[in-house]
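Q: Here's a chain of 175 amino acids. Please give me its 3D structure as tokens.
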Amino acid sequence: RIKSEFPINLWPNAVQAYHGWIHTAVRDNMPYDQFARALLTSSGSNFREPPVNFYRAAPARDPASLAKTVALTFMGTRLERWPEARQKEMSAFFSRVAYKKTGEWKEEIVYLNPAAEGPLQATLPDGTAVTIPAGADPRDAFADWLLKPGNPWFARSIVNRMWCWTMGHGIIHEA
């Protein structure tokens, strides 16, 4: 997802910032849970806050598409294979992500939409219902759940990905 061509559509300044941030995180041995939290909960300029390019690089910006990107990247699952009701539940955690342009060429801000009012009722993939207070970022609640020690979704996903990179074929591999 780090390229400036179709379909990703990141601009060269953003690609440089994003690549540099990932390179530094790997070089400095940033723990994977911290790396994932930074990507999942980032807000700010795509030039000045490199992890927000995770959201800029998603194929589309609607909550359902963001949820699909997160599920595939950090849970190792294709959300479109889930029942429609569960897909909507997962999408709720990304329903308050918003984007706005700035005066700088090709700069964009990813932020928590302040227009969203009232608490948000959401359901985590394990079926746990949560209430996100007004003004709070639902992505934080999702990241807290995902990165909790013992969560099999997160660990299983990275183990399978590393196995695939090492062995050329995942432990679980799509046909």
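Q: Can you summarize the key feature?
A: The chain has a mean pLDDT of 88.
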